[in-house]
Amino acid sequence: MADSSSVTIEEDGFLLLIGVNRPDVHNLWDLEVIQTVCRAYKRLADSEHLRVGVVFGHGRLFTAGLDLASVGPLVATGDIRAVLPEDGYDPWNFFGEPCPKPIVVAVHGTCNTLGIELALASQGAVAAQGTRFAQLEVARGIFPLGGATFRLPARLGVAGMRYLLTAERFDADAALSAGLVNEVVPEGQHLQRAIEVARLIAANAPLAVQAALASARAAERAARDAAAQVMFDWNRKVLGSRDAAEGLSAFLERRAPVFEGR
Q1: How confident is the model at residue 1 (pLDDT cuts 50, 70, 90)?
Q2: Element (H or E) spanning 109, and its range?
Q3: CA-CA distance, 114 to 140, in Å (whole number)?
């Protein structure tokens, strides 16, 4: 069953499988994808029989990141909560309420920016061998808006801070070593393994699982809210800067940007 042309949604026993399906544009998340995934998380939360969600990407890669042409105007208003529908949950657990049930992410090919942040906000992440990761925002004159600013350093330590500030690419083995993903499996087996992990979670007592997740999230809530407030304070200034415009121009023109700090 599909809720939109760009996201597939399928029930598999206790699981809700959510697949981003824009392979022709590298599975960039536009407004439709974001809002459909948010609503899928709400469907998972409200269902009595569904216990765990699995998010994956159709085609050659998981995601190249955010579709700025679609989402940029809303983000530029200064309040990025505008991209979230009222009848959904925040997949990044950063500027809205998260789904109260666990999510496992299956990544492959390329996992950039919001894809990394989705993995950080989820309760399990499986990567295919050969997957390449990058938190690219600062190389484009902007900064991460989905929780990487506090979760990358908190979860990955000095490696997380390095990837946050250098925007350099790293591979699946580095992601596993640093703690971004739980497992690396042979290419083509990432989704099946993520489903297996989700089924392990779903086999346990649902209320106990949700209670454990809620308690774990409560432990980071103060840090999350503090980081989100700083993000809101900086968002309009950074997105309206000359460096942000230069970063976009350089990306479109396939050249190295020249930043001025303005």
Answers
A1: very low
A2: none
A3: 14
